[in-house]
Write a structure and sequence with these properties.
By secondary structure, the chain is α+β, with helices and mostly antiparallel strands. The protein has eight helices and 26 strands. Helix content is about 20%, strand content about 30%. Bound molecules: adenosine monophosphate and magnesium ion. Adenosine monophosphate binds next to helix 4.
């Protein structure tokens, strides 16, 4: 009997329910923590910024002095640069101040240099400033703690560190943070037809694109990748190599050999040396996807067609890997945009169409890449993202579709 197709969302939930969160953590320097997942909550023990400071180059005054004086002329008593510890302003004096410099205790208002006229007063022998525009009390001051307050929880465990997060951690003065250790992902492709890119081309063969695309996807996400030699279409070899990979890695991803052809041995190998949990999804492209365990390690058997590899990796493998890494919340950016095309309803599978954005603003529409074959890898390179068409839905020109730009699943 033909196995029924499992809806994508159901399959993802079923996979996630079989994935455990990690427990291997280590301290990493900030430089090495990009894309790693925090294994601890991070609190600040300081205010950021640590003191009220100037947002402009100009002068600083005590605002109440402005009303006390008959004129708008102040004597300049000092120059305060970023990094200085300023002294209090003498009564009715101003200081020159530069961006980032700490304000004197008794000063509260900065006047930008553009609103000042500096001159030397011969009679007093003093440098003076005339304030040309009436100042606003407290203006151009960055108050202490406006960014982060002392004692504040800055990040929670499970946060995957983006470049801006590394910056924020650095601003707290932290040199290192406790993160989950990277996962070791074993990557293998199956198929007698596969050549390694760089090898000489041969009749009847094609170059292995899947393993290299997956390796790049995984590296971009911060995983450690172990590349294994291509597997021949042979049950015994598939069984023994998959077992071997499972012993060396935290999880395994294979490509090809999961269909029902006479040379497809991956599912059979999984059933004999591990356990099969999920097979065949209501997804186009990517139907023959399998998931299970070998030696207790999650095993993802992706199809052979490159677009199917990309789609199943993005929507099924990536969320599972994030869970294995302890990511608390995965986010996917998506937009509802009108289609500039029509497609017939697919009665059994949810479709992931390669589309590009055309027009801008309110006129933005989705253009369909002309060749949607799952073997046409250029459809991914020459498009901006994927549009999702649910099972049984006919798309008519102007209908709004969920559009997910690359990279799918941002965090
Ligand atoms: P399979 O599921 O193994 O029958 O593969 C389906 C299609 O994908 C066949 O046309 C294969 O030649 C192709 N294919 C399989 N593996 C790869 C790979 N690693 N790189 C590029 N194409 C592949
Ligand atoms: Mg094959």
């Amino acid at each position: 009997m033909k196995a029924s197709l499992i809806p994508v969302d159901e399959a993802r939930e079923a996979i996630l329910s079989r994935i455990e969160a990690p427990n291997k953590s280590a301290k990493y320097s900030l430089i090495d923590s990009l894309n790693k997942v925090l294994a601890e909550d991070v609190y600040s023990n300081t205010d950021i910024p640590p003191a009220d400071n100037s947002a402009m180059d100009g002068i600083v005054i005590n605002f109440s002095d402005f009303h006390k004086l008959d004129s708008r002329i102040f004597e300049i008593s000092s120059v305060i640069q970023a990094g200085d510890v300023p002294e209090n302003l003498p009564v009715s004096c101003a200081s020159r101040i530069y961006t980032g410099a700490v304000l004197p205790e008794n000063a509260d208002t900065v006047i930008p240099v553009e609103d000042c006229r500096f001159f030397f007063d011969e009679s007093s022998g003093q440098e003076c400033v005339e304030i040309l525009v009436k100042p606003v009390e407290g203006n151009h001051v960055r108050p202490r703690g406006q960014d982060i307050k002392s004692g504040q929880k800055v990040f929670s465990r499970g946060n995957r560190l983006k470049p801006q997060d590394i910056g924020l951690l650095a601003s707290l003065g932290l040199g290192e943070v406790l993160c989950q250790k990277p996962l070791k992902v074993g990557l293998v492709s199956t198929g007698n037809e596969l050549l390694r890119p760089g090898e000489e081309n041969k009749a009847g063969k094609i170059f292995n694109s899947n393993q290299f695309m997956l390796s790049a996807l995984l590296h971009e996400l911060g995983f450690e990748v172990l590349m294994f030699d291509v597997l021949a279409d042979d049950l015994k070899q598939t069984q023994s190599v998959l077992l071997d990979i499972a012993k060396q890695c935290d999880c395994i991803i294979s490509t090809g050999g999961v269909s029902v052809g006479g040379a497809d041995f991956v599912k059979q190998a999984l059933e004999t040396v591990g356990e099969l949990a999920i097979w065949r999804l209501a997804i186009k492209p990517g139907k023959p996807f399998v998931f299970g365990r070998i030696e207790g390690k999650p095993f993802f058997g992706l199809p052979g067609n490159p677009v199917a590899v990309f789609v199943t990796f993005s929507f099924l493998v990536k969320p599972a890997l994030f869970k294995m890494l302890g990511v608390a919340e995965s986010k996917q950016m998506e937009f509802l945009l009108p289609a500039d095309f029509s497609v017939k309803a697919n009665k059994t599978r949810q479709e992931y169409l390669r589309v590009s954005l055309e027009g801008s603003g309110e006129n933005q529409k989705l253009r369909l890449f002309e060749n949607q074959s799952s073997g046409v890898l250029s459809s991914l390179s020459y498009s901006d993202g994927l549009a999702i068409v649910p099972i049984g839905v006919e798309v008519k020109n102007g209908d709004k579709l969920r559009f997910i730009p690359y990279p799918v699943l941002n965090n």
